[in-house]
Amino acid sequence: MRSVLLILVFFLFSASPGFSDDREDAETAAGLVVRMFDEKKFSELWDSLTHSLFKKNLTRDQFLANMTIGRSTFGRMTSSRHISTDFSKSDPIYNYEGQIYAITFLNEYGPLRFYERIVMALDEDGEFRLAGVFGAPAGSPAQ
Which domain holds residue 72? Predict the structure, then answer.
Protein backbone atom coordinates (compact mmCIF):
# COMPACT_ATOMS: atom_id res chain seq x y z
CA MET A 1 0.00 0.00 0.00
CA ARG A 2 2.81 2.38 0.88
CA SER A 3 4.52 1.82 -2.51
CA VAL A 4 1.26 2.56 -4.33
CA LEU A 5 0.92 5.80 -2.37
CA LEU A 6 4.52 6.78 -3.17
CA ILE A 7 3.99 6.09 -6.86
CA LEU A 8 0.79 8.18 -6.83
CA VAL A 9 2.58 11.05 -5.07
CA PHE A 10 5.43 10.80 -7.60
CA PHE A 11 3.03 11.07 -10.55
CA LEU A 12 1.15 13.97 -9.00
CA PHE A 13 4.30 15.97 -8.42
CA SER A 14 5.97 14.99 -11.67
CA ALA A 15 2.93 16.33 -13.56
CA SER A 16 3.02 19.66 -11.74
CA PRO A 17 6.07 21.22 -13.45
CA GLY A 18 4.42 20.99 -16.89
CA PHE A 19 1.32 22.68 -15.55
CA SER A 20 3.49 25.30 -13.87
CA ASP A 21 5.44 25.91 -17.09
CA ASP A 22 2.20 26.33 -19.05
CA ARG A 23 0.89 28.76 -16.47
CA GLU A 24 4.10 30.80 -16.66
CA ASP A 25 3.98 30.75 -20.47
CA ALA A 26 0.36 31.97 -20.43
CA GLU A 27 1.18 34.72 -17.90
CA THR A 28 4.19 35.84 -19.94
CA ALA A 29 2.09 35.96 -23.12
CA ALA A 30 -0.66 37.90 -21.30
CA GLY A 31 1.93 40.41 -20.10
CA LEU A 32 3.01 40.89 -23.71
CA VAL A 33 -0.63 41.46 -24.71
CA VAL A 34 -0.97 44.15 -22.03
CA ARG A 35 2.19 45.87 -23.31
CA MET A 36 0.90 45.70 -26.89
CA PHE A 37 -2.37 47.27 -25.73
CA ASP A 38 -0.42 50.08 -24.09
CA GLU A 39 1.72 50.62 -27.19
CA LYS A 40 -1.43 50.42 -29.36
CA LYS A 41 0.11 47.67 -31.49
CA PHE A 42 -3.28 46.23 -32.35
CA SER A 43 -2.37 45.05 -35.86
CA GLU A 44 0.70 43.22 -34.60
CA LEU A 45 -1.35 41.73 -31.78
CA TRP A 46 -3.93 40.42 -34.25
CA ASP A 47 -1.29 39.03 -36.60
CA SER A 48 0.98 37.34 -34.09
CA LEU A 49 -0.70 36.80 -30.74
CA THR A 50 -4.43 36.26 -31.34
CA HIS A 51 -5.85 32.74 -31.03
CA SER A 52 -7.19 31.08 -34.19
CA LEU A 53 -10.56 30.46 -32.51
CA PHE A 54 -10.91 34.15 -31.65
CA LYS A 55 -10.14 34.99 -35.30
CA LYS A 56 -12.94 32.66 -36.47
CA ASN A 57 -15.48 34.74 -34.52
CA LEU A 58 -14.16 38.22 -35.25
CA THR A 59 -12.67 39.83 -38.34
CA ARG A 60 -9.38 41.70 -38.29
CA ASP A 61 -11.20 44.99 -39.01
CA GLN A 62 -13.66 44.37 -36.15
CA PHE A 63 -10.79 43.63 -33.76
CA LEU A 64 -8.83 46.74 -34.81
CA ALA A 65 -11.94 48.94 -34.56
CA ASN A 66 -12.91 47.57 -31.15
CA MET A 67 -9.40 47.98 -29.74
CA THR A 68 -8.96 51.47 -31.18
CA ILE A 69 -12.37 52.74 -30.03
CA GLY A 70 -12.31 50.98 -26.67
CA ARG A 71 -8.86 52.19 -25.73
CA SER A 72 -8.94 55.67 -27.30
CA THR A 73 -9.36 57.47 -23.96
CA PHE A 74 -6.48 55.62 -22.31
CA GLY A 75 -3.21 57.43 -22.03
CA ARG A 76 0.07 55.60 -21.50
CA MET A 77 0.08 52.89 -18.87
CA THR A 78 1.68 54.13 -15.69
CA SER A 79 1.41 50.91 -13.71
CA SER A 80 0.50 47.25 -14.19
CA ARG A 81 0.14 44.62 -11.50
CA HIS A 82 -0.72 40.94 -11.89
CA ILE A 83 -3.68 40.13 -9.63
CA SER A 84 -4.60 36.52 -10.35
CA THR A 85 -4.48 33.61 -12.75
CA ASP A 86 -7.37 31.17 -13.18
CA PHE A 87 -7.30 27.93 -15.16
CA SER A 88 -10.02 26.14 -17.11
CA LYS A 89 -10.13 23.22 -19.52
CA SER A 90 -13.12 24.42 -21.55
CA ASP A 91 -15.00 27.45 -22.78
CA PRO A 92 -18.69 26.70 -23.44
CA ILE A 93 -19.21 29.99 -25.31
CA TYR A 94 -16.74 29.06 -28.05
CA ASN A 95 -17.14 25.31 -27.56
CA TYR A 96 -13.39 25.11 -26.96
CA GLU A 97 -11.66 22.30 -25.10
CA GLY A 98 -8.06 22.93 -24.06
CA GLN A 99 -5.86 24.90 -21.71
CA ILE A 100 -7.28 28.32 -20.90
CA TYR A 101 -5.81 30.81 -18.47
CA ALA A 102 -7.60 34.00 -17.44
CA ILE A 103 -4.97 36.42 -16.16
CA THR A 104 -6.23 39.50 -14.33
CA PHE A 105 -4.20 42.70 -14.07
CA LEU A 106 -4.78 46.00 -12.31
CA ASN A 107 -3.63 48.54 -14.89
CA GLU A 108 -3.38 52.27 -14.39
CA TYR A 109 -3.46 54.82 -17.19
CA GLY A 110 -2.78 58.11 -15.43
CA PRO A 111 -5.79 58.61 -13.15
CA LEU A 112 -7.76 55.76 -14.77
CA ARG A 113 -7.60 52.34 -13.08
CA PHE A 114 -8.92 49.19 -14.70
CA TYR A 115 -9.08 45.52 -13.95
CA GLU A 116 -8.24 43.83 -17.23
CA ARG A 117 -8.71 40.11 -17.67
CA ILE A 118 -6.67 38.70 -20.54
CA VAL A 119 -7.81 35.23 -21.60
CA MET A 120 -5.03 33.13 -23.12
CA ALA A 121 -5.70 29.74 -24.72
CA LEU A 122 -3.30 27.17 -26.06
CA ASP A 123 -3.40 27.35 -29.86
CA GLU A 124 -2.87 24.50 -32.31
CA ASP A 125 0.86 25.28 -32.57
CA GLY A 126 1.38 24.96 -28.81
CA GLU A 127 1.60 28.70 -28.12
CA PHE A 128 -0.67 30.66 -25.80
CA ARG A 129 -2.58 33.35 -27.63
CA LEU A 130 -5.23 35.96 -26.88
CA ALA A 131 -8.71 34.43 -26.78
CA GLY A 132 -10.63 37.15 -24.95
CA VAL A 133 -10.43 40.50 -23.19
CA PHE A 134 -12.60 41.82 -20.39
CA GLY A 135 -12.27 45.03 -18.40
CA ALA A 136 -13.94 47.05 -15.69
CA PRO A 137 -13.11 50.26 -13.84
CA ALA A 138 -11.27 49.58 -10.62
CA GLY A 139 -12.19 52.76 -8.80
CA SER A 140 -9.81 54.90 -6.80
CA PRO A 141 -7.09 53.33 -4.62
CA ALA A 142 -9.00 54.37 -1.46
CA GLN A 143 -12.08 52.31 -2.41
Answer: 2-137
60 to 37, 39, 57, 73: CA distances (angstroms): 15, 18, 10, 21
Please state at what angle helix 42-49 crosses helix 2-38, rounded to 10 degrees: 150
Stretches in the chain below the pLDDT threshold 70: 1-20, 141-143
Q: What are phi and psi of 79, to 5 degrees?
A: -160, 145
* Number of independent structural domains in the chain: 1
Q: What is the pTM of this model?
A: 0.82
Q: Which of 54-67 are b and which e, b meaning 16 or more Cβ less than 10 Å from the residue's Cβ?
A: beeeeeeeebeeeb
42-49 vs 60-70: helix axis angle to the nearest 10?
140
Using an 8 Å Cβ cutoff, are 82 and 116 in contact?
no
